[in-house]
Amino acid sequence: MDKAKLISTWSAAGSPGRTTIALALASELAELGKNVFLLDADTYAPSIELLLGLVDHPAGLAAACRLVGQERFDLEQLQRLSTRVAVGGGELTVMTGLSSESRWAEVSSEKLDDLLMVAGEHFDYVVLDVASPTADGLQTSNSSVDRNAVVRWAIGYSDYVVAICAADPVGVSRFLEAMVRLAELKPTGQVLTLVNRLRSSVLGPSAKQQIIDSLERLGQITVAGFVPDDPVAADSAIKTSLPIGFGRRSSQAKQSIALFCRTQILGQRSKLDVRLAKRANR
């Protein structure tokens, strides 16, 4: 990609909130004035169109890949096959995923690469929502396309891989196992672990520290951020077809994702960092 920074959201199997985080990160970047392209590249369970309530939308990823194969894909086609979505004070360009998971063979890593070459020239950030499985060799008898090649390509070429870990014992165990497979793919970008749905009802009042200690001790994994469980904001997001917290500005989940976006993706210093620096100078 020429200009845009590529961010992929990925996780272990299960439902740790990967798509919710992808949509929220893209929306926070857009609200901060960045030109953002959000692509649903999950070849197993695409769901961004459902979260945004996009009933009547362009053909999306499958049509884009078909045009790439015909060498007819350009910015005009990208815009035609995408939907502009208002998020807070910003706007996202969203390309929805496959209409059926059975069409996964239409999406190859080579076509995705060409598609994102076009996007990379015209956007500041490209956010990919990708599936969990990374194993190779999963093909059909009538196609040479590897179903998980898109995931491996995204992990290999992303500037940031946001790895989502569910904040419960099952989620942490699955995450540790999945991170071993992730490391085998040798990602060239920065892997940022984001723990989602943190709550004391599962691990007690020291839940955050328990997860930090477990991931560090068992996987040498440093946590880059936590998103607290916020069921009211999550339910409101589904009801209103908005990214989490955008219909409820007091949402702790939204505030945590916004902080993660500013400090980990944009490299801005947090208010606490600034206060500590001022105190040190004094």
Key traits:
282 residues; eight-stranded mixed β-sheet; globular; alpha/beta; single chain; disordered C terminus
Characterize the structure shown.
The structure is a single chain. By secondary structure, the protein is α/β, with parallel strands linked by helices. Helix content is 43%, strand content 18%. It is built from twelve helices and eight strands. The chain has helices spanning 18-31, 48-51, 61-69, 75-80, 109-120, 149-157, 169-184, 200-203, 207-219, 231-240, 252-265, 271-281, and strands at residues 5-11, 36-40, 83-87, 90-95, 125-129, 160-166, 190-198, 223-228. The protein has an eight-stranded mixed beta sheet, sandwiched between helices. α7 links the parallel β6 and β7. Mean pLDDT is 92; it is low at 276-282.
Write the layout of secondary structure elements.
Elements lengths: L4 E7 L6 H14 L4 E5 L7 H4 L9 H9 L5 H6 L2 E5 L2 E6 L13 H12 L4 E5 L19 H9 L2 E7 L2 H16 L5 E9 L1 H4 L3 H13 L3 E6 L2 H10 L11 H14 L5 H11 L1
Parallel strand pairs: 1-5, 1-6, 2-4, 2-5, 6-7, 7-8
Antiparallel strand pairs: 3-4
Helix pairs in contact: 1-11, 3-5, 7-9
